[in-house]
UniProtKB/TrEMBL annotation:
One cellular-component annotation, GO: endoplasmic reticulum
Lineage: Eukaryota, Metazoa, Ecdysozoa, Arthropoda, Hexapoda
GO biological process: fucose metabolic process; Notch signaling pathway
Protein name in the entry: GDP-fucose protein O-fucosyltransferase 1
Reactions performed catalytically: L-threonyl-[protein] + GDP-beta-L-fucose = 3-O-(alpha-L-fucosyl)-L-threonyl-[protein] + GDP + H(+); L-seryl-[protein] + GDP-beta-L-fucose = 3-O-(alpha-L-fucosyl)-L-seryl-[protein] + GDP + H(+)
Organism: Parnassius apollo (Apollo butterfly)
Keyword Endoplasmic reticulum in record: yes
Length: 347
């Protein structure tokens, strides 16, 4: 579902589920939507991430390897059944319609997969931490009768289930991404520390933030407000902070940190480079961004920043925050806690 940040949340849940039912996880390609392309593009999982580190938690295999070496034996074309909770709308009645729409059709077509039937797994769910539920899956779908469970959608929740957040430690950038990120930092931000910031401000995001009042746990907001809003309420400024709020918060961070020489900006739209250069002139810092858009490289760089400021509601920011938590690196979010609360606690 969605773009990379949402898919990463789903992936952690699917990883937990595969361990819960004790089945090898076939690592799916990442689904990408590129400008000018009518259909989604499927990018092999290991284009960005290591496979070996995931095997430390549970057995995994890439989709490419599975289709080449294993599927012909255990999952021949006439035995390919798609799984979904209930019937999905589409061309056929009483069907998962697993290939209806984008990215569904292009995803399976990438591997020349067609389905001969559908299996509705409701009322079972994919809470991997419910042992009774996992046993029901094993009983209903035995390995002998169902060697492969091919889901129409990820067997996972969004945002990532609280109990699965820690699994991010097994998700590591591959050597290519690591080398590119370190090379960029060395070439463009040497001689001092840097603050990494994520600005989510494209028009689609502006529209999404209109739903803050009606959706107290919108998208990845639970990473800030909690899964039951136990840490406060979601506000408009947490979703879409004003330019003045962004600048004030960066200045506060600058004053409490030592030897910061750079601000690295990742954004889907407006990087605010000129605004930040002008506003931060007194601090003698350089404001930096990638010359060519590369969201994965942006994330790898944000994961290495001395300090990070992200967006509570964004699953993209959530990815960076999880990675930094694994490394023990400090982070905060725009307008959370509220500036008033921060000032009160400082008194």
């Amino acid at each position: 579902m969605g773009r990379f940040g949402n898919q990463a949340d789903h992936f952690l849940g699917a990883l937990a589920f595969s361990k819960g039912v004790n089945r090898t996880l076939v690592l799916p390609p990442w689904v990408e939507y590129r400008f000018g392309e009518a259909k989604s593009i499927q990018v092999p999982f290991d284009t960005y991430f290591e496979v070996e580190s995931l095997n430390l938690y549970h057995h995994v295999i890439t989709m490419e390897e599975f289709m080449k070496d294993i599927a012909p034996v255990v999952w021949p074309p006439h035995k390919r059944i798609s799984f979904c909770y209930v019937e999905r709308n589409g061309e056929k009645l009483n069907s998962c319609n697993a290939k209806s729409g984008n990215p569904f059709g292009p995803f399976w077509d990438t591997f020349n997969i067609d389905f001969k039937g559908s299996e509705f797994y409701g009322p079972l769910n994919y809470d991997a931490h419910n042992k009774e539920m996992m046993n029901k899956w094993k009983q209903k779908y035995s390995l002998n009768n169902w060697p492969v469970l091919a889901f129409t959608g990820a067997p996972a929740s969004f945002p990532v289930q609280k109990e699965n957040v820690h699994l991010h430690k097994y998700l590591k950038w591959n050597r290519d991404i690591e080398n590119k990120s370190r090379s960029f930092i060395k070439k463009n931000m040497s001689g001092g520390g840097f603050i990494g910031i994520h600005l989510r401000n494209g028009q689609d995001w502006v529209k999404a933030c209109h739903h803050v009042k009606d959706s107290p746990r919108l998208f990845a907001a639970p990473q800030c407000v909690g899964y039951k809003n136990e840490r406060g309420l979601l506000t408009q400024s947490m979703c879409l902070p004003e330019k003045s709020e962004i600048i004030k918060q960066i200045k506060r961070a600058m004053k409490k940190l030592n030897d910061i020489k750079y601000i690295f900006v990742a954004s889907d739209s407006n990087h605010m480079i000129d605004d930040l250069k002008t506003a931060l002139r007194q601090f003698d810092v350089s404001v930096v961004k990638l010359q060519q858009p590369n969201p994965h490289l942006d994330l790898a760089i944000l994961g290495q920043a001395n300090y990070f400021i992200g967006n509570c509601v964004s699953s993209y920011s959530a990815f960076a925050k999880r990675e930094r938590d694994v490394k023990g690196l400090p982070s905060e979010f725009w307008s959370f806690p509220s500036p008033k609360k921060i000032r009160h606690e400082e008194l």
